[in-house]
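Example for tutorial group B:
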């Protein structure tokens, strides 16, 4: 399967992510623990765990490493560039994109 065949479903799946799921995904990529993510976003650790589980389901991967692989595989394709723009404007999370 080439990239053009796999990008379509991924774009649709990324569009299903909530702002909070995008924030959690970004922090997972930053190697933050569930506890660190919870503190940074002002939510409970259990809520972070729920968001992580939803990310795995929505992006059709089995592990956090799979999440990171999906992000890096498609980062040049646009949906994750848009994700970074969206979450960088979020009041709970400031991202240094330099």
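The residue assignment follows.
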């Amino acid at each position: 399967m080439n990239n053009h065949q796999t990008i379509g479903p991924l774009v649709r799946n990324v569009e299903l992510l909530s702002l909070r799921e995008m924030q959690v995904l970004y922090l997972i990529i930053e190697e933050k623990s569930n506890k660190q993510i919870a503190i940074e976003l002002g939510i409970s650790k259990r809520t972070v765990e729920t968001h992580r589980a939803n990310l795995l389901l929505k992006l059709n991967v089995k592990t956090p490493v799979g999440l990171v692989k999906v992000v890096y595989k498609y980062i040049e394709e646009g949906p994750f560039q848009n994700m970074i723009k969206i979450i960088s404007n979020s009041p709970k999370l400031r991202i240094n994109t330099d």
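Residues 1-5 have pLDDT under 50 and may be disordered. Compare this with the pattern of hydrophobic and polar residues in the output above.
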